[in-house]
Amino acid sequence: MPPLRKPALSSSPPPAHPLFQGTDLTQKTAIRNVQIHGRRTSLRLVPDFWNAIELIAETEKRPLSEILGLLDVKRGNASLTAAVRIFALNYFRLQAPPLPASGDGQHQATSG
Fold first, then answer.
1. Which domain holds residue 85?
2. For the segment 54-63, what is each residue's pLDDT rounded down to a tens digit?
3. Of 94, 18, 19, nearest to 59 (Cα)?
């Protein structure tokens, strides 16, 4: 049996899609010092997640340190960075309207 070959990668950019408008997938992480339960620690996130967690704190009218403290307590063995990303994703996913049906015949992701 001949060995499997990887498909060639295209050097051309993917076609534009409305879901990716304004999305920078090449963001570099930013490290910030934060205070949680009275102790200082550093947290590394890309700017979009920093913006998201700050918006959540503002929307919920709670200090960022309080939100991070709650995540720190609930995160179990996960890193705080992972807990922040999962929390932000789920927070906004619960508020987002469903995506419109795609008429191009491609598979759609489902939750459940």
1. 27-94
2. 999 999 999 9
3. 94
